[in-house]
Amino acid sequence: MKLMTKMIILGAGFALAACTNPGRFDDTNDVNLNGAGSGVVAGSANDPTSPAYFQQTIGDRVLFDVDQSTLTAFGQSTLDGQATWLTSNPEYTALIEGHADEQGTRQYNLALGARRANAVQEYLVSRGVPTSRLKVVSYGKERPIEICSAEACYAKNRRAVTVISVVPIS
Amino acid sequence: MMVRVLTLLLALSIWGLPVSAQDGGPLRIEITEGVIEPLPFAVPDFVGDGGAAAELGRQISDVIAADLTGTGLFREISPDAFISQITSFASPVQYADWKAINAQALISGAVSVDASGQLIVQFRIYDVFSGQELGQGLQLVGTQDGWRRIAHKVADQVYSRITGETPYFDSRVVFVAESGPKDVRQKRLAIMDYDGANVKYLTDSASIVLAPRFSPSGDRVLYTSYETGFPRIYVLDVANVGRQALENQQGTMSFAPRFAPNGQTVVYSLSTGGNTDLYTMDLASGANSRLTSAPSIETAPSYSPDGSQIVFESDRSGSPQLYIMPAGGGEARRISGGNGRYGTPVWSPRGDLIAFTKQSKGRFHIGVMRLDGSEERLLTASFLDEGPTWAPNGRVIMFTRETQGEQGRSSLYSVDITGRNLRQLSTQTGASDPAWSPLQK
Q: For labelling alongside B66, which of A81, A130, B24, B311 has CA 20 to 30 A away?
């Protein structure tokens, strides 16, 4: 399908992703600062049915230890939130992107990213999300979000990100 | 296409007779011996009849000199030191004048352009201290645009006659040209001469492309692209840049392809359900065959030159290590034994060594080892070295080096299998994932 899809990632979401603030603890402040006031603006981060909410409030990513694809307890709680959201918003599909830090060869990191994305997919399926709504891709070390060569950055690059869209999965 | 004729000019070859060589033997470099003193040579501008030919003569001499000095085995004597000038290719060589400046090898040549615009290059190689020609004079004919290839072919002759090794200068490198910061890096497939000249782009930067590999005859390139949003293998025809995706199953990712020596079979990694294993595909029929079935990661496969075995990387032991198995699959034996993580094994074209990437104590190395894992030798060390590829003669390895930090940039380096002569290739953009072609015909 040639949908020039609305990748429903709002500008605000992008800005947040760019500074890689997972948003989990800061979203309340952000929302208030954004001046949403008492009302819920449809599609904004305080609209619980919005992808922005998914990304910023629930958290769209889980992080991994070096060379690992095992989900942490914190990662699992994030994914519980993701599964609940996906279940109550059935019109959305998700692409799970697995990533690695730059330590490691290109090929190995592609395979490692695939393991991470798959770990997230399996967890979401175990929490009731139909496989048909999920796809996985590995970027290996090709798309870091933090570019320093230090553990502070590596820790954020070893991730699996659940990207929400309305594109039907073919 | 460029060099159609390799004709004989003179057949006076009697080299090998140590007439009066200063060192008591014929002109020869034994590459396998320990540290060597680079052999001094002189390559006066090739003599040209007419302005265009004279200019080409100068450029050809420069490329020959760069090829030879680039090996670390030869040292160019500056033209400023020359006592004799070569103004005529036919005139007898004044050996005493070249001896006096310690030019052990002399390469002289002539350039002309014929009525149809063809470039004609003749050359002779002299063993100065023996006072005789080294091998036969040759004539090369090609297009004027192809002058660099002709120069490389002359240098190949010098290299092979003096070292006794097969040469590698008339070869190309396919690689990934990189631009932009690390988090949004743009990648394009590109091809160039082995020395970085004549860069041509084979894809645009719309999708991430990775790890191109030549076919055994150099006419096709396998690579991985995210064109569909998912990593998938493509085969590209170098001459017309046409490309075709290899068949793949829905929901899978495929990468790390490499040709078998038959040029018909491709071995690659396929990821499904989070597990990465090795498969082969027959290009003609599209038929797949699964080589490994393990929950571990199996990737980075490379065939032995006879096609009977495959070396690959697997983390079945808990960390990435190197293994060799029969080309059809079956029991694999681990060959890497040292401390550290091993990846990207590549079988040498001579069949005797495996080049690899090693990660140890926070550093990356390019190294070589024997087929049983013995005699491991690390050739380089840096923040990030990876992805070795062999020169067609198995004497030199090219690889990717990426610098550390936010401004980190990839570039291509080469190093001898002795660990000497580490050199950075000059490329206009960042560059990664080199693959060296076979010697061109």
A: B24
- A106 contacts in chain B (CB < 8 Å): 210-211, 344, 386-387, 433
pLDDT digit string, tens, across residues B382-440: 999 999 999 999 999 999 999 999 999 999 999 999 999 999 999 999 999 999 999 99
Structure tokens at A141: 């070390």
- What range defines the domain where residue A50 resides? 11-165
Q: What is the pTM of this model?
A: 0.89
The verdict on a CB contact (< 8 Å) between B273 and A118 is yes
* Strand B105-113 to B39-42 pairing: parallel
- Give me the domains of chain B, ranges plus CATH numbers: 5-163 (3.40.50.10070), 172-436 (2.120.10.30)
Exposed/middle/buried for residue B367 (C-beta within 10 Å: 0-12, 13-18, 19+): buried
- Find the angle CA(A52)-CA(A58)-CA(A61) to the nearest 5 degrees: 90
E runs forming strands in chain A: 61-63, 93-99, 134-140, 159-165
Instruction: Return the structure tokens found at A166.
Output: 């309305």
Which neighbouring-strand residues pair with A135? A95
In one letter, which amino acid is B392?
P
State whether residue B346 sits within 8 Å of chain A by CB.
no
Residue of B253, B273, B404 with shortest CB distance to A149? B404
**Tokens read off for A45:** 């981060």
As a whole number of angstroms, the distance between CA B369 and CA B153 comes to 31
Total domains in the fold of chain A: 1
Q: Are A139 and A113 in contact (CB under 8 A)?
A: yes
Place of tokens 């150099």: B218
Task: Please state the rounded mean pLDDT for residues A110-131.
Answer: 98
Stated as kind and residue range, the H or E segment containing A125 is helix A106-126
Burial class (CB in 10 A: 0-12, 13-18, 19+), A35: exposed
